[in-house]
TrEMBL record:
SUPFAM superfamilies: Acetyl-CoA synthetase-like. Keywords: Fatty acid metabolism, Ligase, Lipid metabolism, Lipid transport, Membrane, Nucleotide-binding, Signal, Transmembrane, Transmembrane helix, Transport. This is Arachidonate--CoA ligase. It catalyses: a very long-chain fatty acid + ATP + CoA = a very long-chain fatty acyl-CoA + AMP + diphosphate; a fatty acid(in) = a fatty acid(out); (9Z,12Z)-octadecadienoate(out) = (9Z,12Z)-octadecadienoate(in); hexadecanoate(out) = hexadecanoate(in). It comes from Gouania willdenowi.
Length: 602
């Protein structure tokens, strides 16, 4: 508990400089490239990135020039602000120079997981809408296995050692000579300019039903996550960080590389994590900070004991998912003074766990010292997101296991409260609630619904309606919506799960907009059977003159969900997929009662 209390205190006092700086950057039109330019000015000749695989070092000036070359090359390709380019390569400093250089001309990188092959690879590149793909020569085989659709013509570039034959087989150009001959001079800021709220790049999170989803990272999110790690764990400008996490991912590219671009730390980029080389690398490069994810700690602990594991200068390990059961074994055996578990907090929006799609705790708040770090879960009506108030007009704290809105108390004495008001008054007002913990106080509304367990660990709650479970499988409503809508010529479709008595999970239901009122369910069923696995096929259909897909879509969906398949609650026609007959049958009161009384198997 002391460890936790300590971390919570650290968080509490460390957010001030972050918020102040972010506020300034927001106001004066900064973005990640302009913040990096200031870092370069501070120490042009300090090593910025070191590539462990080759030992090569890029100083801040060299990294800046390399990214300028990328920017010139990108502009020469005719790419403009808002275009997307996919990056598909194992971790290397050039990957940083690529997305940074693209950002200098407003082009957004889609950071593709280098372990993907075939379908998922096509999918990720496809959904990004990329105009081009840059791949590492080590992934030439993976590239040759996929056929990008001709509807999405993509220019291809390859970086690394590659033969002319391979290049011509893949119709790719060799990027390295193009960059070597490009100008290294800075370009004028991109037009239209990109600010802190604009898109920087895309990171993919694992989807619930398989295919990864692209998450937008805006400039301010990059800044917040990186700066949060720096301030919360008291990193120092002379720290050297060992980054062995993949750069297509937020942990490696933001928490790790962000310390270089924003705070000016030297970062050692490891091509791929290696448990046996870990501590020797740290010694070789004088690393003082390492990054981990839970599995890395386990792999390191399972290695044979070697002297290097205690001979290093590593002071701090930051990451996510260090189990309480191995925490002490880890710190004692490897002589690590400080563990920085990246807890979610209002200021960082728990965005780490969220973006990674990690199922598990995304934060921690001590239940014993709840006032030290004043975030709390309070009851909320999930349909309207209105706070639930008790008889005194105060918010109702959630008990363990009860989902609630994450709120952070605003301290009256905290000078930040004033500028919170200025930054964007309207938006700020919506984010502030009064009389939350006690009379006359104010609190910040995160907009996120979480659940806390008995120990105080916090978990993201599935946003209601996003997924449901059926026959032991997780069904993603947005994916099914996409597929059904595609089958119906992009008609509006809303998919949700509905409860059926005595049946585990939720049965899928699709509300389909059909103004013509001539919908043929059973010919539609044939298309569904080809397009969806059996567990994802809607058990119920509801045909409506229109489905509201505007801003109130979510609310509409909860209403649809509440009405379920009860034919008495709507004039819309409802159908039931009779599994024996393998056809949709119109719902009437008799059929409804048969299902409600469990006399019909689904
Ligand atoms: C924006 O504000 C930051 C922080 O005060 C400052 O360092 C930077 O020079 C400013 N940038 C511009 C473009 O004014
Ligand atoms: C990257 O892809 C591999 C292979 O599909 C997968 O096992 C891994 O979980 C992915 N990593 C992330 C962070 O999504
Ligand atoms: C953090 O949450 C606030 C409130 O939900 C939102 O306005 C802001 O855009 C979020 N920032 C990031 C970086 O996600
Ligand atoms: C590591 O530190 C030692 C002693 O301070 C120094 O001699 C050595 O050059 C450093 N190594 C690197 C790679 O910077
Ligand atoms: C809350 O504010 C009102 C008006 O400013 C004041 O009359 C009241 O005494 C305050 N209540 C508390 C508990 O501070
Ligand atoms: C479905 O999601 C739950 C957590 O939400 C997870 O524990 C389970 O393994 C998932 N099942 C499948 C089949 O992916």
């Amino acid at each position: 508990m002391t460890q936790h209390a300590y971390s919570i205190l650290t968080l509490h006092f460390s957010l001030f400089p972050l918020r102040l700086a972010l506020w300034r950057y927001m106001r004066n039109g900064s973005n990640i490239p302009s913040i990096f330019a200031q870092t370069v000015k501070r120490h042009p000749n300090k090593p910025a990135l070191i590539y462990e695989a080759t030992g090569e070092t890029w100083t801040f000036t060299q990294l800046d020039e390399l990214s300028n070359a990328v920017a010139h090359w990108a502009r020469d390709q005719g790419w403009v602000s808002g275009d997307v380019v996919a990056l598909f390569m194992e971790s290397r400093p050039l990957q940083v120079a690529l997305w940074l250089g693209l950002a200098k001309v407003g082009v957004e990188a889609a950071l593709i997981n280098f372990s993907l092959r075939c379908e998922p690879l096509l999918h990720c590149v496809g959904v990004s809408g990329s105009r081009a793909i840059v791949f590492g020569s080590e992934l030439a085989d993976a590239m040759s296995e996929v056929a990008f659709p001709s509807s999405q013509p993509m220019v291809r570039f390859c970086t690394g050692d590659v033969s002319e034959d391979v290049l011509s087989d893949l119709s790719a150009q060799h990027l390295d000579p193009l960059l070597a001959s490009a100008s290294k001079h800075p370009l004028p800021p991109c037009n239209p300019p990109k600010g802190m709220n604009d898109r920087l790049f895309y990171i993919y999170t694992s989807g619930t039903t398989g295919l990864p989803k692209a998450a937008i990272v805006v400039h301010s999110r990059y800044y917040r996550i990186a700066a949060f790690g720096y301030f919360a764990f008291r990193m120092r400008p002379d720290d050297i960080l060992y980054d062995c996490l993949p750069l297509y991912h937020s942990a490696g590219n933001i928490i790790g590389v962000g310390q270089c671009l924003i705070q000016g730390l030297t970062v050692v980029v490891k091509r791929k994590f290696s448990a046996s080389r870990f501590w020797e690398d740290c010694i070789k490069y004088n690393c003082t900070v390492v990054q981990y994810i839970g599995e890395i700690c386990r792999y390191l602990l399972s290695q044979p004991v070697r002297p290097s594991e205690r001979d290093h200068k590593v002071r701090l390990a930051i990451g996510n998912g260090l189990r309480p059961s191995v925490w002490e074994a880890f710190t004692e055996r490897f002589r690590i003074a400080q563990i920085g578990e990246f807890y979610g907090a209002t200021e960082c929006n728990c965005s780490i766990a969220n973006m990674d799609g990690k199922v598990g705790a995304c934060g921690f708040n001590s239940r014993i010292l709840p006032n030290v770090y004043p975030i709390r879960l309070v009851s909320v009506d999930e349909d309207t997101m209105e706070l639930v108030r008790d008889s005194r007009g105060l918010c109702v704290p959630c008990r363990p296991g009860e989902p609630g809105l994450l709120v952070g108390r605003i301290n009256q004495q905290d000078p930040l409260r004033r500028f919170d008001g200025y930054a964007n008054q309207d938006a700020t007002k919506k984010k502030i609630a009064h009389n939350v913990f006690k009379k006359n106080d104010t609190a910040y509304l995160s907009g996120d619904v979480l659940v806390m367990d008995d120990l105080g660990y916090m978990y993201f709650r599935d946003r209601s309606g996003d997924t449901y479970r059926w026959r032991g499988e997780n069904v993603s409503t947005t994916e099914v919506e996409g597929i059904l809508s595609g089958l119906l010529g992009q008609t509006d479709v809303a998919v949700y799960g509905v409860s059926v008595p005595d049946v585990e999970g939720k049965a899928g239901m699709a509300a389909i907009a059909d103004p013509s009122e001539s919908f043929d369910c059973n010919s539609f069923l044939q298309s569904i059977q080809r397009a969806l696995p059996s567990y994802a096929r809607p058990v119920f259909l509801r045909i409506s003159p229109h489905v509201d897909t505007t801003g109130t879509f979510k609310i509409q969906k909860t209403r649809l969900q509440r009405e379920g398949f009860d034919p008495r609650l709507t004039t819309d026609q409802i159908y039931f997929l009779n599994p024996r007959a393998a056809r949709y049958e119109p719902m009437d009161e008799d059929l409804y009662n048969t299902i409600m009384e469990s006399r019909m198997s689904l």
